[in-house]
Amino acid sequence: MAARFATPSQGSLNSTRDKGNGKKPISPPPQQQPEDPLLGRIDLTDFSVDSEAGEDGLVAEISASVYIANKLFTISSGGSDLVTLTGWKDPSNPEVVQQLDLTGFFTTSVATFGNLIAIAATPDNYDAIGIKTPESQIRFYSLNPSGKLTEVGVVYTGFLTDGMQFSADGRQLYIANEGQPNANYTEDPVGTVSIIDISGKGGKGGKGGKGGFSATEVKFPALDHADVELQGSGIRSIPFSGKAGITTSFAEDAEPEYVAAAGGYLFVTLQENNTVARIDLDTNSVEAYIGLGWMDYSKVAVDLDDRDGPPANGESFSAIFKPLTGQQVVGLRMADGIAAWEQGEDVYFITANEGDAREYGETDANGDFDATYLDERRNGSGGSSALNYGSVPSRYKLIVENAEDSALRTKALVLSGNLADTDPTNDFVFEPAPQSSATRTGTPVSFGSRSLSLFDGLTGQLLWDSWMTDTIKGTAYNTSLQNIAQFAGTYDDGRSDDKGVEPESVAVLEYNNRRYAVGSLERTTAGDKTVDPNDIDPVTQGGLLVVYDVTDVNNVDFVTYQQVSRSPEGLEVIEASQSPTRRLLLGVSSEFDSNSVELLDFGALLGNGNGAAYLLSDLAKPITYQTL
C-alpha cells in the first residue's frame, strides 16, 4: 500500500458547540505570526508497540484534527492496530490523550468532520494465502471536549480501505478501497470507491450500515465502456499491468489510493494504472479516466544513477548529485496523492507523482523473499538477459513484464508507435530481449516522474509540471524537486535509481487571497550529504515540504521549502477558525523512524526565506540544469 491519506477539504474541520453547556465557546484573538514555522512536534515512538504483532508499528503516518471547545485534538494512524489521539491546546506542548487498540485490524487512514472521526480498519489477515480476502470497514467515533472517544458506528466498505475525505458539508465520506492483491498474487480483489451518507450520530450496523450511515459502492467500468471518456495519455492496464490469469478486468487491476472532491466531482488516483478516475457525484458513476502521461527525461537534467562515483574524500555514493540531460527514458507519473479545487466554472487537480512497482510473493523459513509477481528490473549491463538500454544507468529500475522466473523478466515496457492516436491505452508495448547483447532501441518506461503536476479536471489537459521552467518576474528558474532537495541538503542520491525524492502527498490551501499547493517528499533524508550531517537531525529534519503558488494555473511559481521530520506522509490543513492560535496551520505526519506529528504556522512557513535563497543558487539556473 503506497498511500494512506486524502487531504481534507477546507471545510472539513468545522467548529463544534461545547457539549457541556450548549454554548459556543468564545474564540481568542489571533496570535502574532511566529518567527519559527514549527509550533510543536510530538514523537509517538514510545506509543507505537503493536499489541497484536508484539513489535513496533507506525502510529503517525496519517492524521486528522478536531477543534472543539477551543481545543485542538489530532487523531493519527499508520499501519498498526493502534490509533492515537493527541491534544494540541498548547501547540508547543502536545500530549497523548488516548489510544485505541483495534486488535485484529491494521489502520490505514483517518478523517474528521466536526467532532466525528472516521477510522479505516482492515483485518490483519487481509493478504493471507489460501483464504477469501476479507473486506475492510470504517469505524466512526465521536469526540467530546474532554478528549473521550465513543464509537458510534461501523460500516463495511470494500477491499483494503485507503485514502478518505469528508465532503465540504460533512454529509458524505468518500473512501478509496485499494483492492490490493494478496501476498502471493493468487487473488486480486476489485478496487472500488465507497460513498457513505451520514445523518445523525448513527449506530453500529452490518453491511451497508444502519441508523445514521448508509454506503454506496462505485465500481470501475472497463476502459472501453460506452459511458466513459478516455482523456490524457499513458493509461496502463491489462496486458501491461496485472497478473495473467488472475487479473481479468480493469476493476481488479485498479488500485485506488487518494480521493479529492471538488466541483461536484470526485477525483481518484489509480496509481499503478497511471490514471485518475473522475466520478460524477450526482450519479455516483465514473465518467472519465484521465491518463497522467509521462515525463521525458531526455529533455531535463535529472539524476537517475545512484552510482555516480567513485565517491571522493571518503563520502558515500549518496553524497553525489549528478543530473544529466539526454537520457532516453520516460517516467510514468503514477500519482499517489491528489488535491482538487473549484475555480470559477473550472475544476483542477494536482498530483504527487510517486510511482509504484508491484512486488508480491512469499518469505521462506530462511527469510528469503521469493517473488511470484514482480514488474520491475534494473537496466543491467551486458549479457543476453540484461535490459541494456544505451543512455539509461545500469542500476536504474524499469517496468518489465512479470514472469515467475526472474531470468525471464526481459520484456521491457516501452513507448509504442501509436502515440499519435487518440486512444491513451495504446501507448505501450513490451519489447523482447534481442538475440545478443545489442543495445535496445525502444524508449523504456520507469516508475514515477519525481514531480508535482497540475491538470484541468474536466479536459484532462496537463497545465503544469514542476519540471517546467519557472519564470518569476521575468527570470527563468529550475524549481525541480530534486534540485530543491539538493539545495536543502536532503537529497538522497541512494534513491536516484528508484523514484528519487518520491513525492507522496499534496494539499491545496488558501492564504491571504492566494492559493498554494504543498507537496511532501517522502524519500529525502539527512546525512552523507554535501552539508555537514551534524548540522541536520535525520529524524526531526530529514524530510522536505515544497510550496508552489497555484493561484494562476497557467503561471505556477515556486515559493519556498521547509524541512520537517523524516519521511513526511500525510498533510492536513487546519483553518484559522479551527486553530488554537487562530492562524492557518499545516499538520504533517511522518512515518519511518520519525513517527511524529508536527504543526506548522503556514504564514511563517511562507516567510522562512528558504525560497529566496534557493532562487539565488546555481541549482536554480536552467542554463546549467535543463528544464522543460
What does this structure look like?
There is one protein chain. With 628 residues, the protein is mainly beta. Among the domains are: 1-221, no CATH class; 466-628, no CATH class. 4% of the residues lie in helices and 39% in strands. The protein has four helices and 43 strands. A five-stranded mixed β-sheet has the order 8-9-10-11-15, with no helix packed on it. Strands 17-21-20-19-18 form a five-stranded mixed β-sheet, with no helix packed on it. A hairpin with a 2-residue loop joins β37 (503-511) and β38. The radius of gyration is 23 Å and the shape is globular. The chain starts with 37 loop residues before the first strand and ends in a 13-residue tail after the last helix. Residues 1-22, 202-211 and 527-531 have low confidence and may be disordered.
Features:
single chain, 628 residues, mainly beta, five-stranded mixed sheet
